[in-house]
Write a structure and sequence with these properties.
- Helix content is 30%, strand content 20%.
- It is an alpha+beta fold and 992 residues long.
- A hairpin with a 2-residue loop joins strand 7 and strand 8.
- Helix 6 packs across helix 7 and helix 8 packs antiparallel against helix 9.
- The longest helix has 15 residues.
Amino acid sequence: MKAGIFILLPILVATSTLSQDSPAPYPETPSTQPDQAVETFQLLHGFSLELIAAEPLVTDPVDICYDENGRAYVAEMGDYPYTDKAKHKPGQENPTDESIGKVRLLVDTDDDGIFDQSTVFADNLSWPTGVVCWDGGIYVTATPDLWYFKDHDGDGVADERRKVYTGFRKYNVQAVMNNPIWGLDNHIYISGSTNGGTITKVDDPDFPPLKASRHDFRFDPVTEALMLESGYGRFGNTFDNFGNRFVCNIRNPALHIVMPKRFLDRNPYLPPFDPREDICDFGEFIPVHRIAPPEQWRVERAERWSAEEPDRHPSTELVGAGAVTSSAGITCYRGDAYPENFGGNLFVGDASSGVVYRLELTPDGVTFQASRPDEKADFLASRDVWSRLVNLENSPDGCLTVLDMYREAIEHPWSIPDDIHDRIDLERGRDKGRIYRILPPGDYQRRSTPQLGAMGNEELVTLLSHPNAWHRETAQRLLVERRADLSDDTIQKLGALKENADSILGSIHAMHVLTALGESPESTFMTWHYADVSGKEQEAAHKLAAEYAHEAPDSPHWKPARAPATETGLFWNLLAARNFDEVSWIFAQENFQLLTAPSPWLRKAMLVGSVNYAPPLFEQLCKTHDADTELVHQLGVVLGAGEPEQVLSNLLSQSVLQVKSDTLLVAAAAGLAEGMKRQKLALFPLIRKVPALHAFEADLLQKATSLAQNPAVPTEDRAIALTVFRNVPLSQSKEIYQSLLQTDTPLELQRNILSGLSGYDLPEVPELLINRWPKLSPALQQQALEILLTRPSFFPPFLSALESKIISPHVVSQTRRSFLTEHSDKAIATRAKAIFSGSTDRNQVIETYTAALSDLTPNPKAGQLVFQQFCMACHQLGEEGLSDLGPNLSTVRDWDRGQLLTNILDPSREVSPAFVEYLVEKNDGTVLGGSILNETDAAVLLRRPDGSRKAVYRRDIKEITNSGHSLMPEGLEAVLSTQQMADLLSFLTRKP
């Protein structure tokens, strides 16, 4: 599906253009008949395409799964993008849409590889986006519900229709849960996207509501327990052979979910972090090589563009195409029909361009790097503008199945200019859909459709080693479904396969089947760990240990006998460790780099696992002269947040005081101090209670001052040193803050100083910020603004700065304006209303600028200066820019300028869920704003409007409010002339 293009300063898409006319509807583009469809495709490397289903057998296919006998269940999203245009408005939920989605059952009755029989298995579904097999039926994700359907009488129509969960938010049609898939651990993983919701179990009134925002889901089909999981992308969800999971997210084709949420939740004292790794190595501007002609509405947009600068753009780029804007259906190829070098490749569709491109994965420590092996063309592309390649699936025959939703236009209705929207029929094509098989090069002979459902259990055990992942996963699923009826002989065969070092994949699948049968995973860990195995087997053993070791606290067998052979094995080993003895071998390894230069993910694993052994680990690190400063500091935070006061006193006197390195000493103390604040404890009062630390306070401040002011010290260590001053009165920290809050001081340090100032509820803070405002860079102004808007006591001086024009009202977001104008303090509300009363109707502003722009000659060089002054605090353009608060603007070079104009002037007309501003009110009365990056049971991780990240612990939160507005403020017309706007648009759309 076309995952709407949410970008530029507000991260939204325009609904107005440069045209003032409303012509008749666009001429219809003729569709291609199914029997001619294959001829419209171009494939690389000798691959070819075969049509295996088309209308009327199937329509609007968006997901597919094959059951044990090769029958295909297809989710048909006929209600995309809406059924109720009158109420389907930007930024609104869509409960009134009719439920016209379906699940289709396709059967190949003569085993020729082409489906020839079709029944509507289940209908009257809302936004069906995923199907997965279980126990003779299927689970279906159909927002707002998760369903189970089963056909008991064999007529191809479900007679069991059971709603299992409900409450998934029906908001953005392109941000719904989707693509449920089977995992190695016998759970079903669901891509949750970003709509969130408050989820309840339909038949269990005692089920505590599950509050989801930016989460994926993990579902146990045996117990039907649903859990939140790390992740969130848009449309797509896949595993590789070893359980690594990947999702895609509009302009991010491949995100590796490195850290499962269940591990993060083990350490309630750990500040949250993003559990994903963006593994693509080519930045945000990712080219696609579309070969279909542009849609008519794109032609009109191109004509408007051509009228401004007809000589600057090649004709192929006048259609607003050429870059990844709608990554969808990410699938790891795990079959056995293609050449070996395609195994493990990720295949991703771009629905708006009619292409599928592939990514090669290269291991990179715990995670991967993804690269584009096909540079001049995409792996698969269609010349038919109707072709919308939204998803792929590994099939029983070892090939990839491709789903073509087949629509004349595929766009989010919120993402199309109003006048164009009025002229497009977004529903045209609801009666069509195609499914293809990608055939390998050479003389391919398709295997007969397998009938695994009729196989005996011991036959299924042999299939756990099959080279095609569909056979392995289906056999594993069937064995788990039959778990109560497995004989001793079958279980013995599973045990033998588990210990068979010649079949790594078979061993891994057998291990997980046995775990589902109740075998202690401890025996598997012992077998694999103490045997002469390495690589993927050992990694799998350590991962199993990480899952289950904490359930066997008295077992001696989880303790590693030796260091894992790979970084990934070490990663899981650190998560499995239950005490310091189980990781103490780290310190005995010669030249081992974990303590002195750990990779980011190893550092995170150690911090997550440290909940069980933080004090002794901290003591050991303090003895290691060249230990990693950041690890010491972060571990100090964990300790300070979770350990009793007496333990902290002992650590200070017995460990920190003994540190010989000033940098480590300051990092250790600063981390402890930061964590202690969560317990309402303070560092220096604690120091004063301990006789052995009598001189430590002055010594610590002196060392922190020396480090912070020394330009030869690495900036990150100077920044940690500055955090020490957040623990003393402002009268003690003000001097060093003022000495470093200068233009020639590194930006990171100035940011750190402003963060320190935010901790004081004193009148000197707004006074200092307002006086320094004209000399602050754009990024620092954003941060200062957030400080001024955080504390109620700062509102009066802030409003005075707005009234006196020291600060321009345009910098205040719509969310914050509403917060001030509706404030419970009537004096504040009255002043705010007077300040913001001049807000102009957005459509009127856009119309005014549109009319003026047509008569101006833009200057892209001048536009670069405008970008640097007003945009770079929140965005990057290539390598230029200070923050990733919004996407990299390299992706808008091919956009229509009318589209960009509306993005800039009306930022909240449509907002991607990823960039909606939330207000988090804390118990102490402070109010923080930002988008939610991640959540754990312990805390919420905010991305602030200044680009910084802030962990807010749930125990301190009074209320979280979704504003529905963009992080970007509106009102730029107050500071941007029409000429500056023309220059900026020209700069943003220039070609490199």
